[in-house]
Fold each of these.
Amino acid sequence: MTYELLTALSLFAFVSSITPGPNNLMLMASGANFGFRRTIPHMLGVALGFVFMVLLVGAGLVQVFDAFPVSYIVLKVVSVAYLLWLAWKIAHAAPVKAKGAEGRPMTFLQAAAFQWVNPKAWAMALTAISAYTPDQTLAAIVLVGVVFGAINLPSVGSWTVLGQQMARFLTSPRRLVLFNWTMAALLVASLYPVIWPQ
């Protein structure tokens, strides 16, 4: 991979990782509701789960989807349904103190599995593999995964910190409810490109 291609890949990884999307909105909500430390498994699940997804897509999984085009439609329906369910959960999240032991952020495995129904993650993985591994070699695919892993984790971590800092202003139940409903609405809005593609 040339220096120019690596620079372009790094820029793409940063922009796509730091901009709002389902992962970042959920991490901000988790940071606000559960704090940074309790959200670490969620952050690691996002970062490492996405790297694993990139590796599998690069290794040929995308060819399975190309061979069975109906699978794209199935993936879209499942993704939209799951994100709507998550938005409902965020909107109805009670304060942690009210929930006690039941209030739990997403686990590592849940966050890693979520990448497979996250439309933005699919778009990022497919673009990264098709645009930045023209020769489709294993070394190039692994390099794309490493670059994304190195850039993605600090990016998603910044959204968790933002949520944690916002928690200072969410001390009243009314403000927390408003915040959670806003995050849920933004999560639903992030589905717009999936439901109505250009």
Amino acid sequence: MERLLYISQQTPDSSHLDNIRAACEAGCRWIQLRVKSGDVSTQATAAKIICDQYGAKLSINDHPAMAAVIGAYGAHVGLLDIPVREARQLTGEGCWLGGTANTPADALAHAAAGANYIGYGPFRFTTTKEKLSPVLGLEGYKQLMAHLREKGVAIPVLAIGGILLEDIPALMATGIHGVAVSGLITHAANKKEMVHHIQQALSCNN
């Protein structure tokens, strides 16, 4: 499992697909298409083609059935979306399925329901998500990892939500698997250089 997940976003000058291609060109090898409106099917199919060209894995946010239809690597569901157990029925066992969590209880429930990984956040305030759950900060990740160890649950955790490059070493020190970012790469002046720095920071505790 990759340690860096790029979550797509649309900007005034670039579409989701433009930004996905740019992230792939910069070296990202795990991409999540996160489209909240419009023709998801067409964009998902196009995103799959782009990712295939670069040898990147594509996950689809909020639409597990669509992920199965286009043969995507994975799917991801939010706290207010379809439950992980139902999403798994739609994707089948071969799909790498993730669920968003904001509390240790959320994370344990997703793990029990068959999730392959947890997207845990938000780390700090972010404008990317409209209905933001309570901000966790570094302490939130320390508490989660301690709770998972106590319960004997081993599941990869990705930190998400307003993460900056300088945050990554401390986050990785908590025992998480990696990070999911959007604006950090989308708005980078030199995306390839940024991805390189992120990858270096992700490997510093491993």
Amino acid sequence: MVAKASGRPSPPPLYNRLPVLRAERGLSRQDLAAAIAVNYQTIGYLERGEYAPSLDLAFRLSEFFGLPIEAIFSRTPFIPLSEEVYGGKK
């Protein structure tokens, strides 16, 4: 962990599958933002890992996609779907 200017360590990064989930459903950032009642820029910040969602926002995303929160967000990088399904073979 890297220490912030305040001397406290920064939290580990939070990875997410939002771009993949949006693409699977043919949603723009604006579409998703409207569906969960946030600004579309919030979706961009989340996708880039520049913003960690509140618990409420994580639950709204979970409910919207019909997935558990841990299927959307993780403290460790997600394995690309191609590797999960095909074992990294093309």
Amino acid sequence: MNIVVQVKLEPDATQVSVLESTLYALNKQANKVSEVAFDRDVKRNYDLRKLTYNDLREAGIGSQAAQHIIKKVCDAYVTLKANIKAGNLGTQGSQRRVKAESKPISFRLDSAHPYDARNLSFALEKKTISLWTLEGRMKNIPFTGSEHGLAKLARFKRGECDLMRRDGMWLLAVTVDIPDTERYEPTGFIGVDLGIVNIATASSDPAG
């Protein structure tokens, strides 16, 4: 079972500047990739990668970040297609649906961007992370979170993370894989008799 643990980053002024320029650049490039996907009607990951990966690398985007941009764009178009099919954007010809279908998907400059173990790592004892940025690997970014959430980060396998900025705060949403608990199979039952004098009387005797 996957759950999401959210931690708050506490970067200093220099780190904030780098994170901001990196996240903004990643989303600007995502918008360019989205335009290619829309104009060429190419929305499958492998095919879109052939059209856009080299341009992303030439723009200074790291290999793993470039692949995440392409996947992010493809996932957005899959979600749009599912919403259209489900009727969430109205019937064919409706103003809302026409608007959604007539232009490329766009991303806010502070939209979340995915990271994984190849370009982001945790130092849990120090409560810091290091991650890829446009200026290289940036280390020792402090983070904090609930005691319950941090315990899950330490105990269970961590997956993909989303870096985001919300209301001036830098956040990291971390996917954590928690093993499913063993299903309990009962071996008996308890009967409950509702009454007036005794509101409820329990019995494990099959005969009542």
